[in-house]
Every structure is written in structure tokens, then in C-alpha cells.
Amino acid sequence: MADGNETIEKKVMDALAKVIDPELGIDLVNLGLIYDVKVDDDGLCTVTMTLTTMGCPLTDFLNKAINEAVVGVAGVNNCKVNLVWEPAWDISKMSRFARLALGIHG
Q1: In this structure, what are the phi and psi dihedrals at residue 71, rounded to the nearest 5 degrees?
Q2: Which H, E and C letters describe 8-69, residue by residue?
Q3: Tens digits of per-residue pLDDT, 9-61?
């Protein structure tokens, strides 16, 4: 994250922590789906993320929810979701909170 935009990027991450995966009932940040957030000088926020599986039926729903959350942050004018498959997501990317909430131990 760029030094000058660190505060706004933290606010974006806080906003993304309120976007809940409806299938799992856990937010995208704790699920480990958000890999990076960058905000440029023009207020374009690029969210680099992945999904738990390719062909996820919730892709459109999540894109809409992410866009709404991100552009709701002061200083962000637009949102671009950069969906990546590398590195591949696995349960090790989940926070301890998410693993406990889903009953995953270890």
C-alpha cells in the first residue's frame, strides 16, 4: 500500500470487512479472499482478490457488494476488482476467527 494512501486503503479494508459471503456467513477479509488494495491519486481503488472456487455462483453478487462498499469510502471515486487465481486460495488464508466460526480446527 502506498504511504500517502495508507489511511484510505485501511478504510477500504474496513469496508470490505463488512462484505459477507452469503454462503459462509463470514466477511471477505477474514476469509482471506482480499489479497491487496491500492488507491491511486485519482481515487481509483483496485481490489485484488480471489474466490474460494472458480465459477463461483456469487461472483456478480460479490462484485456489486464490493463496489458499493469501496466507493462508499471517502476519497474513492471508482472501484476495479482484479480477480486472480494465483496464489490459489485455501483455508490457510482464513483468519483464526473465520476458521473457528466455521468449525475448522488446526
Answers
A1: -75, -10
A2: HHHHHHHHHCCCEECCCCEECCCCCCEEEEEECCCCEEEEEECCCCCCCCCHHHHHHHHHHH
A3: 999 999 999 999 998 999 999 999 999 999 999 999 999 999 988 888 888 99
Three cell numbers, residue 30? 477474514
Amino acid type, 95: S
Q: Which of 16, 12, 44 has its CA nearest to residue 28?
A: 16
Fold classified for 3-86: GMP Synthetase; Chain A, domain 3 (3.30.300)
Give how far Cα 36 sits from Cα of 18, 39, 103, Å.
Answer: 16, 10, 26
* Dihedral Cα 33, 10, 4, 35, nearest 10 deg: -10
Q: Beta-carbon neighbour count of residue 2 at 10 Å? A: 11
CB 42 within 8 A of CB 8: no
CA–CA gap between residue 56 and residue 75 (Å, rounded): 30
Distance from C-alpha of 28 to C-alpha of 18, rounded to nearest angstrom: 8
